[in-house]
Amino acid sequence: MTQLSNRLKSLDPYKPGEQPKDRQYIKLNANENPYPPCPETVKEVTDFLKEHPRAASLYADPDSTVLRGEIAAMLCRTGGVLCKAEGDTPAADKANITPDMVYCGNGSDEVLSLSFYAFFDDAIVSPQHSYSFYPVYCGYYGVKQEKAMLLDDWTLDIERMAETATRLDAPTILANPNAPTGVALTRDEVKWMLDNSPHGRVFMVDEAYMDFGKESALPLLESYENLAIVRTFSKSMCAAGMRIGYLVANKPLIDAITTVKNSMNHFPVDALAQVFGASSCRHSAYYAECARSVVQEREAFAAFLNEHGWNAPPSGANFVFACKEGVSGLEAYKKIKKAGILVRRFDTPGIEDYLRITIGTHEEMSSLQYVMEDI
Amino acid sequence: MTQLSNRLKSLDPYKPGEQPKDRQYIKLNANENPYPPCPETVKEVTDFLKEHPRAASLYADPDSTVLRGEIAAMLCRTGGVLCKAEGDTPAADKANITPDMVYCGNGSDEVLSLSFYAFFDDAIVSPQHSYSFYPVYCGYYGVKQEKAMLLDDWTLDIERMAETATRLDAPTILANPNAPTGVALTRDEVKWMLDNSPHGRVFMVDEAYMDFGKESALPLLESYENLAIVRTFSKSMCAAGMRIGYLVANKPLIDAITTVKNSMNHFPVDALAQVFGASSCRHSAYYAECARSVVQEREAFAAFLNEHGWNAPPSGANFVFACKEGVSGLEAYKKIKKAGILVRRFDTPGIEDYLRITIGTHEEMSSLQYVMEDI
What we know:
The structure is a homodimer.
Chain A: E1 26-28, H1 39-51, H2 54-57, H3 65-78, E2 102-105, H4 107-119, E3 123-127, H5 133-141, E4 144-148, H6 158-168, E5 172-175, H7 187-196, E6 203-206, E7 227-232, E8 245-249, H8 251-262, H9 271-282, H10 284-307, E9 310-311, E10 319-324, H11 329-338, E11 341-345, E12 355-358, H12 362-372
Parallel strand pairs in A: 1-11, 3-4, 5-6, 6-7
Antiparallel strand pairs in A: 2-8, 7-8, 9-10, 10-12, 11-12
Helix pairs in contact in A: 1-9, 3-9, 4-5, 4-8, 6-7
């Protein structure tokens, strides 16, 4: 028997949403975007490869310079919330992001992993229920995870969480909107937490779903040098398959994660993904339209759930988190799967009767409602 | 000041070949392939994206199933050495590789990094001069690197290296052909090392350049369950920009690196890169032709160097490692750069007067020879 590293023993890898191949399912289990990428981007990427095939033979720009510039420009325009119409964005929501405040990686999972390596040592504070990759990274890097309980309505107990971080002098990581609950914090709440958590420790906000929400923490970067915001192209930008994630922070934190990247994989974002991402940013108006459709469907679905006796906290994301009294989560999941629709369910104690349902197209949501009416 | 992790302090990141933007250079400094990818692959990838744009919106296959199948089929056909003509491949060179013996990652750098995490603990043995990312990963994961000296002709002292590994009961990693020297081991030499190194420890061979060489270790996988072979699409497959690397090993090692991957980034190879890689494997005859051109240019360049008083060990890779008595490596590098050609030079003591020169097209090599005649 070949001996493997001792580190392996402590790993409990992430289990993603199932991808069964036995039949065609409506996929509402991985929080993917139901729309295709912008047609202009498809054209620009294919034209690029045809006109510059040697770009595939050469190493890509290790610094994703063009992509970072386009991301910064997009964030300045949108304030980090795509679903708002341009006129809806008040001055307080505007963000002043420069390209040197952006780091790009191979999906926000890689960005998160390198951030854990760069920013976290002994312990971190994070919500009791949140993105299930956080405990995986804790295992990977040997960081202790101190969990802050959620309140009965699935909101974060921000006072208790800040207290814990202060007592341990520990960094914080939270998702806003949170997953799998969809519950969002206001910018004032995030600011309150920043003011009441250790100033010398990184405070990380995972905004994977913020483009479907209300208030990004991006404008706070001006005042908080310990704030680090992770974002992704996988949800609102219709690009889960392209693996583009990024960190937005002030220069000392960007320098740190860049050092870690250069110690791990010098060229994480491939040449075509860089072109794809940069083009997508230029066409953010298309993705804003997609995000608005998703939000509209989400609100209609929330009303349906309410009418049919399901409980679901208000969502600021592209999914809802729902349960019905007297209905087993596993049974509901199975019935829906039998009808050809995949939703997500967790075995985690305390949320085992909840379903996390991704918002799809109008047609997909109609099919789902038809099934759920009988549950 | 925001506190960062203690781990950061021990990092000394890899410094890749320079990518200056002040003028157009002939790039012979990063061991890239001078040829574009196969035109059929460009067509297949662009057709795929146009016909299946939603593939970009959805998470890609986390297991790169199709790509792994095509890699395995290619390795069975070629025995892991592309530059050989089909008829030149004797039975002993044939490899019997199944898809479950292949793991795919975001470039061989990522594959190497995850392998270090999965396979190496306290210490490893590796050659004195080799791929300069190995010491970086040692720093990243806190592994001690025991360096085995090279002999005067830049060959590996395989007896001493195996002795050291046995004394320390440590895993081994080496590159074959080695970088930056280009010197290759025969399969019998690799086999001798496997027989004389600790059987219970991983023995890793980095075959990034093997497609330009003579004898891959792939046929040895049948007999050695501790053997792990890392390979890449960046050199012979004209795809440095696409970030595809892979590990070939028996199932227990593949299972281990897959567990590590699932604890780090569940979807490392993006949807387009998977299609690109799979298509490239199907068109391996094209890349074999490219590899043969590179080998032909390499041999012609070696003859030129010999005629002009340069010393260069015989290379089995797509680069040569050369110096000239009485000529400073830095001065030679500068003269060549002034003429618009980038080659690679290292500050490392012992090799500071050597240049590592990537083999380009016939025209590029003619330009270089014109400059080098005056050095």
